[in-house]
């Protein structure tokens, strides 16, 4: 499961006119008929900025969509799409969500993403992509890119071209290597690489000084670059199910606290009043040596 998903996250849709045809079991032919009826009404198609077509049975998108010249957000998730045609030349899409379809790399024409300087969000998660779509690298305006749950084996060295990215989600693929050029994505706030075949991270990851979330669980990591401590904004780091963590847990020696320590902690933490003669002298001396953690958020004890 991906921790970062998209539902038009970069758009305030409250004031935008929406055409909602979601969850109506529409197929390609019936969708074409629905859209044609709207297009045939004078200037009606130009009013819509959002079209929701998710949860249907659509295999192909009709050319009629090209008539919605003010279209900004298109959600065609959870359909049966095998191709995304280049029918958006005359609209300024900001968000294209096409997750959970049957799209392959051949489904995306070379010119599909050309001149899409307005596109900020692209979600192609849960499809059948075998490698990172090269066309995507031409969309310098992208802020949110979701390609998780495919069969992608590579992150291109030219990933640096997407220098506006804030979220890059590539979990659930077959990626083996993370290129050094990832370090050029200095605006990145979330990087999802979980459930892949990654054995090491590049030292350049330390350049991601805006990174808040790094999810790299379920990989083959045996070490981490020491430079990772430079990520001052990092608040979430997921490492579980890596050889690095498995070995640490396996080799960890647990030493249960003594009765003396348990008694001392109980008295200190619960502020139980005691007087000389009420407890053994060894416990009194032990309590006198207790120190409180200087971190106000901790409030723990140590000796």
From TrEMBL:
Pfam families associated with the record: LRR_14, LRR_8
Ranges for domain Disease resistance R13L4/SHOC-2-like LRR: 168-241
SUPFAM superfamilies in the record: L domain-like (SSF52058)
Signal sequence range: none
One Gene Ontology term, aspect cellular component: cytoplasm
Keyword annotations: Leucine-rich repeat, Repeat
Record-given protein name: Disease resistance R13L4/SHOC-2-like LRR domain-containing protein
Naturally occurring in which organism (per UniProt): Spodoptera exigua
Taxonomic lineage from the root: Eukaryota, Metazoa, Ecdysozoa, Arthropoda, Hexapoda
